[in-house]
Design a protein that fits this description.
The protein is α/β, with parallel strands linked by helices and 411 residues long. It folds into 2 domains: 205 residues, Rossmann fold (3-Layer(aba) Sandwich); 172 residues, 3-Layer(aba) Sandwich (Rossmann fold). The protein is 41% helix and 15% strand. Helix 7 links the parallel strand 6 and strand 7.
């Protein structure tokens, strides 16, 4: 089969941090290294990054600061320009990337494949409700599938379902998400589960631990969204400090709950014990991980937590919730501890259990390395090539590197 030309329509992309950003960069680089013609479009804070020129594929960055409607229009126009000479559009998500990708694919009659890593409509429902009422009790993602909500939420849900139903194939990173997408009326045979790859162990080994951190460091990372449970982590710190005054909590990431967290830290007089890093580079994220003792993710929702794979690769034992895709990565009392979302007593107990037992900590770390063997780059890339029908089979059999793309950005 002749190699096809692939267009990756991404949302976030490095230097943004997060699973979807890392995934898009990884698959683009691996495909390009295999001689596959790849172009990528994404949203970005800047029109160009220094690393872009080092890659062997065309990257078009659409600056986020523009008016949203104008930004989406510019994205669609540039995607149209890339896709005219392409064969497959591979969208990362249903709205910001997926909707313009669907429109372009329909106009140009291109194959349209989409990766779904979450429920966008549910995420926006959570954010909007929390903005109106910080104490609102909100439905979890599974309850959300079976109820009706306000007009805007239902509109987002309708658009999301329309985009996904229109795809030729759908990729999800977990069995949990496959079940969720199936509830949108998608036939099971259109959905393929492909686990995300863990990080590059050799690259991580070269990164130094963050300087200047002392004490028993707890690390949590992710976008500061309502369902990430960061507020609960802050609230349990005074009790943890009564057990061990050397505990320090590092919260890595940015998002809508940033100011609330700052106020909570101030009110609890924890400025010397909790650090909010804000948005940082991926390399700095890894340096924090390598300086930490325990990774904690008190999340109410994860499709498949790539951040946990990265934490395991950095040698951290894991404490996370028993929800969604988490149990597909963390086996309770094997490579970490699972607890109920926002259950403060269970969370404190888990942290103290690992802190007090160094042998258990080492056991979790070693078992984490074994778990990572199920999340290899080779498996992910080969399975993705198969679904995309790119005409290349083996990751180990590399072809010559492609010349850099020369498509011009339209706007």
């Amino acid at each position: 089969m002749q190699n096809k030309k692939l267009i990756i329509a991404a949302g976030i992309y490095p230097p943004d941090i997060g699973g979807p950003a890392i995934y898009s960069q990884l698959v683009a680089r691996e495909f390009a290294n295999k001689g596959i013609s790849v172009s990528l479009i994404c949203y970005s804070d800047k029109k160009e990054e220094p690393t872009d020129k080092k890659d062997k594929f065309k990257i078009i960055r659409i600056v986020r600061k523009k008016n949203p409607l104008f930004r989406y229009a510019v994205y669609a126009l540039n995607l149209f320009g890339l896709a005219k000479n392409g064969d497959i559009i591979y969208a990362q998500g249903p709205l910001g990337a997926g909707l313009p990708a669907l429109i372009v694919a329909k106009i140009l009659r291109k194959q349209f494949i989409i990766k779904i890593v979450g429920d966008y409509a549910w995420e926006q429902y959570q954010n909007n409700a929390k903005c109106k009422n910080q104490n609102a009790k909100l439905d979890d993602i599974e309850t959300f599938q079976n109820k009706k909500y306000d007009f805007l939420t239902e509109l987002r849900r309708k658009i999301q379902k329309t985009v996904v139903k229109s795809a030729d194939k759908i990729i999800t990173p977990s069995e949990f998400l496959k079940r969720i997408v199936g509830k949108w009326g998608i036939k099971e045979d259109k959905i393929r589960v492909i686990y995300n790859a863990g990080p590059d162990i050799e690259k991580i080994a070269k990164i130094r631990a963050k300087d200047g951190l002392s004490g028993d460091v707890l690390i949590s990372a992710g976008r500061l969204e309502p369902w990430k449970g960061m507020v609960t982590l802050v609230e349990i710190m005074p009790e943890l400090l009564q057990k061990n005054s050397n505990f320090k909590l590092i919260i890595i990431g940015d998002g809508p709950l940033n100011e609330e967290l700052k106020l909570k830290i101030r009110d609890l007089n924890l400025k010397d014990k909790i650090i909010l890093t804000g948005k940082i580079s991926h390399e700095e994220l890894m340096s924090y991980f390598k300086a930490g003792e325990i990774f904690v993710l008190n999340t109410g929702y994860e499709g498949l937590p790539h951040i946990i794979l990265e934490a395991m690769a950095c040698g951290l034992p894991i404490i996370t919730t028993n929800v969604c895709g988490n149990p597909e990565v963390v086996k309770d009392n094997y490579n970490g501890i699972l607890f109920e979302y926002n259950n403060k007593e269970q969370l404190k107990k888990a942290i103290l259990k690992i802190w007090e037992n160094k042998d258990l900590r080492r056991e979790f770390v070693e078992n984490g390395k074994r778990v990572l063997e199920n999340f290899t780059r080779e498996k992910m890339i080969n399975n993705t090539i198969e679904v995309l029908e790119l005409g290349v089979r083996s990751l180990k059999k590399l072809t010559s590197n492609p010349e850099p793309q020369t498509d011009k950005q339209i706007i």
